[in-house]
Amino acid sequence: MDTSALALFLLADGRFPAGGHAHSAGVEAAVADGRITDEASLEAYVLGRLVTTGLVDAALAAATAHRLAAVASAAAARTVLEQLDAEAEARLVPPALRRSSRRLGRQLARAAARCWPASEFVQLADGFPDGAHQSVVLGCVGVAIDAPPLAVAEIAVHHAITMPAQAGVRLLGLDPFGVAALIARLAPAGAQIAADAASRAPGPLADLPARSAPLADIAATAHATWEVRLFAT
Question: Cys-Cys with 153: which of 62, 103, 134, 196 at CB 3.0–4.6 Å?
Answer without folding.
Answer: 62
